[in-house]
C-alpha cells in the first residue's frame, strides 16, 4: 500500500499547510492587522476555509481511506501509519457532514465577530456585540444539526475540542469540583484582598516588562530564533510550525503579574506546539490531541511550576534585578504566599488558581443553556452577573469585567471553555507522575535547571502529537482515568504549605 500511503501523506500535508495559513491569519488579526482590515480578512479567511473544506471532504480522499483501512487494521495499532489512517477517517467523517457554505460562514463570522467584540469592549457596550454573538449562536446550532448520534447538542461542540468527551461525563466532574471549591474559596478567600496580595503592583513601563518576561522565558527554554512574543488584548499562543511559535501576552503598566503569568501560560502552549516528533510534521498527527491536554501544559507551567515555592525562590532575585520594585520587600516565603492567595474576583485570566475553575464552570453552564435554548443572547449579561454572585460572591460592575471579558464567543469557540478545567485536572495527574519520575524536580527548578522538566513533558506528552486520543494518552502516562481528586489534593496541600489555608484536609 506504499503508493496509497504516500498519497494520503501528501493530502494530509496540504491540509496541514492550510491549517498553518489559517493560524497565521488569526495571529496577524490579533497582533498586527489594523482594525479596518477586518472585513477583508473575513473574506480571505472564508475563502481559505472553502479550500480547506474541499481538501478535507474530497471524494478521492474518502476512496483512499476505504482502500487503506483494511491494510491499516493489520498493522501495529501504535504505528504512525495506522494512527494516521484512523485520525484521517475521523476528520473526514466529521467534515463531510458540514456543507461548504456553512464552513465558510463559520470562518467569516469568526473574523467579523472578533472585531465586533473589540469595539464593544472599547465602548463597554454589550449591545455592540449582541448581533455578532447571536450570529455565532445561530451558526453553532446549524453546525450541531449536521450531526446525529450525540446525546446532547453540546456534545457536537465539545467533541471538536476534546475528542470523545460528552456532556454526560463532564457534568458530574464539574459538579464534584464545584461542590469542593465553593467551600474551599469561602474558607481561604478574601474578596477585599488584592490579587497576589499586592505583589507585582507598581508602575512598570512596557519595555521593562517585555525584557523581564523574555529573561524569564529564555531561562525556561524560549528560543528567539524559532519563537516570538507580541502584545495582544487577549493572550494566546499559535503554533504555525514546530520552528515558528508565536506567543502573546498583555501588559498592564500597574501590575507586572498580568504579563508574567500570561506569558508562562502561553509558554506551556508553545512548548507543546514545538515538541511533536518531527516524523509527524505535516501529517496532521503533529497537531495537539485536544485542548484539554494543551491546557494541561499551559496551566502546569503557569501554576504548578510558576506558583511553586521552588520557582519563587528562583524567580525572586531575577525580578529584583530586572523589574525593581515588582516584588519589593518579599522573601521567598512571602512571594510564595502572595502568588497563592485566594481572591474571588471578576476576570478569569487574572484569577488565582483556586477560584479559576469556578469561572470556567459558569461559562460551561451558560454555554449549555445557550445551546439547549433555555437562555437567550439578550439575557446573557444578567445570567453572567447572577452566576458570578452565586459562585464567587462578587458583583459585576460592567460588561468589560463581565460578559465581554473573553474573546472565545466572538470567534464561535463554544465547547472550548471546559478544556481549561480539564487541563487543570489532567495537569495535576501528570504532575503526580512527573514528581515520581523526577524526584529532585523542586531542587532543579530552584537552581533554574528546567531542561529535565521540559524533556519529561516532551517524551511523555508533546512528541506524540495526536497519535493517541486524550484519555488513552492519560492512561498511558498515569495509568488512571480522568479524576478530580488529584487536583483538589494538590491545591489543598499547596494552600496549606503557603500558609493560605490552615490545614490541607
What does this molecule look like?
- This protein is mainly alpha-helical and 505 residues long.
- It has two domains: 2-148, no CATH class; 167-497, Neurolysin, domain 3, CATH 1.10.1370.
- Helix content is 62%, strand content 3%.
- It is built from 20 helices and three strands.
- The chain has helices at 2-31, 38-56, 59-73, 80-95, 100-123, 127-144, 153-161, 167-188, 206-220, 256-274, 291-305, 309-322, 332-339, 356-372, 380-392, 418-437, 441-446, 451-460, 470-478, 485-497; strands spanning 227-231, 237-241, 244-249.
- A three-stranded mixed beta sheet has the order 1-3-2.
- A hairpin with a 2-residue loop joins β2 (237-241) and β3 (244-249).
- The termini are far apart.
- The model has no long low-confidence stretch (mean pLDDT 96).
Decide which structural class fits the backbone: mainly alpha
State the oligomer.
single chain
| CATH class group of the largest domain | Mainly Alpha
When the domains are counted, the total is 2
- As a whole number of angstroms, the C-alpha radius of gyration is 22 Å
Low-confidence sequence ranges: none
Give the N-terminus to C-terminus distance in angstroms. Answer: 58 Å
- What would you call the shape? globular
CATH architecture of the largest domain: Orthogonal Bundle
Largest sheet: 3 strands, mixed
Indicate the percent of residues in helices. Answer: 55-70%
Order of helices and strands: HHHHHHHHHEEEHHHHHHHHHHH
Number of helices: 20
Q: Tell how many strands the DSSP assignment holds.
A: 3
Quote the average pLDDT. Answer: 96
Share in β-strands:
under 5%
CATH topology term of the largest domain:
Neurolysin, domain 3
Strands side by side in the biggest sheet = 1-3-2
